[in-house]
Amino acid sequence: MRPDLSPAWSRLQQHRERLTSAPLALDATRLELQQIQAAGLTLDFARQGLDEAAVEALAALAEAADLRSAIAAMYSGLHVNQSEDRPALHTALRCSSTAALQVDGEDVRATITAERAQLARMVHNLDHAAEEAVGPLDVVILGIGGSQLGPELVCRALAPVGDPRYALHFVANIDPHALDRVLPRVDPGRCRFVVVSKTFATLETRTNAEAALAWLEERAGVPRQAALERFIAITARPAEARAFGMADPQILTFRDWVGGRYSLWSSVGLPIALQVGLNGFNRLLAGAEAMDRHFREAPWEANLPALAGLLGIWQINLLGRRSHAIVPYSERLALLPAWLQQLDMESSGKSVTADGEACALATGPVIWGSCGTSGQHAYFQHLHQSTLVTPVDLILPLLPMLGEDLERQDLLVANCLAQAEALATGLDPQATQQGLAACGPDAATLARQLPHRSFSGRRPVNLIVMDRLLPETLGALLAFYEHRTYTQAVIWGINPFDQWGVELGKQIAGSLVTALRASTDDLTGTGSVATWVARYRNLR
């Protein structure tokens, strides 16, 4: 039975009414109280417009929702994924403990150790092949969603410390152009194809794998058996990979209690281990584990992911905000908004609770964004002056990678901090008028421009800072967002570990493929898309 949260909500509503028109004072006391640190990250939420009493009320909401028990249930292997009747144990993948953890009759720790040994052997074998190759070994990763977004994000973020023996290519889309633009850059004499699919039945991934196999056979002239030996499978269904033609030494496994969007910590992280080595991969896991410990142990007012989730609840459910912008001030984190889109919107895009009842509260917002400073020249006008107020996370590694230009980094850091300040404080009409008057325009020009050049401010900002983007801090950042998402799901009472909404369109697409390829004029069963099916077939 869901706990009664109404007293906690009532208290929060009182704080909302009290703070709606209160001035935003970015004084030293608030800045000190509203900057918290863990696992190499600092969360500065002083620009959210909350005071100590409101933060305490958010912590009380977490207590009323029994968030602590929900966290313990996830870590202990209880079936927190109710609709699929299984655990969600991605956190166990980065836990350094060797103590047994029995879940449904399986020693999870032993399973993870065995799978990690498989991964190490595969990395060793590929390292050997790379050393023998003339030039970098091309590794084409075929996967979509969590099988691509997380690994590619990490590989791009940590590329400066990458292994020059490898050239990694990620292909996700079923659009023929996605694979066809990569293959001409691949040397068929020194390449591997990594097929990443939890079920090994994902349409896009299987289609691209079959096309890659055909390319090796037909265009590169590699005999089929030799071509199959260039393939590696990463899957929770090894029997399906064997049916494709791969032998056991070519197959890496992970368990079905690893959700796709949480899978980069598993064998799915093979590209990461190639990019930064097993040591770098272990450092990534260690950073995530540090954030895991913090999430489990820290009090709510000082708990980075829990507090960030509660701040999101404040924005969504108390203030009615329906989108959230993610702006990393690091080109290396360019894929972070896309990764977080999947993590948050697949997890939180629910309209029923875990018990199957209609949600009484608004759930997950639209997640969007891109790199700063590029975003400043695209959508920051919306962030500053739109009638739709959008909370924003500004993510800032203070220092560049070793050897990079510090003078340009000065400009990047200055832009990030300036945007945080401008969004929060704005510029009222009186200050705007004084600034314009100093430039000497006539009275008519000043009156015309004044409303357009004034800024209301009070735009909610989280500033998330790390000293430098390293495997450890990146692992902590990704785990931070995973736990923020789980915190919100617990408050809403939804299951963040399933994604049934993506299945219906796939089922319809499967039936339409037959109609699109049919040679008869019978369009029965295609419903309202019959006209487009007919038009496609006429053009095909």
Can you tag this structure with a few keywords?
single chain, 540 residues, six-stranded mixed beta sheet, alpha/beta, 13 strands, five-stranded parallel beta sheet, 48% helix
Write the layout of secondary structure elements.
Blueprint: H1 6-19, H2 28-33, E1 35-38, E2 41-47, H3 52-64, H4 67-76, E3 102-103, E4 106-107, H5 108-132, E5 137-142, H6 149-157, E6 166-171, H7 176-180, E7 191-196, H8 203-219, H9 224-228, E8 231-235, H10 238-244, E9 251-253, H11 270-297, H12 304-318, E10 323-328, H13 336-348, E11 366-368, H14 380-385, E12 392-399, H15 406-425, H16 429-438, H17 443-449, E13 461-468, H18 471-492, H19 503-517, H20 530-539
Parallel strand pairs: 5-6, 5-7, 7-8, 8-9, 10-11, 10-12, 12-13
Antiparallel strand pairs: 1-2, 2-13, 3-4
Helix pairs in contact: 1-3, 3-12, 5-11, 6-11, 11-18, 12-18, 13-18, 19-20
Report what the structure shows.
The protein has a domain at 503-539. Strand 5, helix 6 and strand 6 (166-171) form a beta-alpha-beta unit. A six-stranded mixed β-sheet has the order 1-2-13-12-10-11, sandwiched between helices. A five-stranded parallel β-sheet has the order 6-5-7-8-9, sandwiched between helices. The chain is an alpha/beta fold. The termini are far apart. It is globular. It is built from 20 helices and 13 strands. Helices cover 48% and strands 12% of the residues.
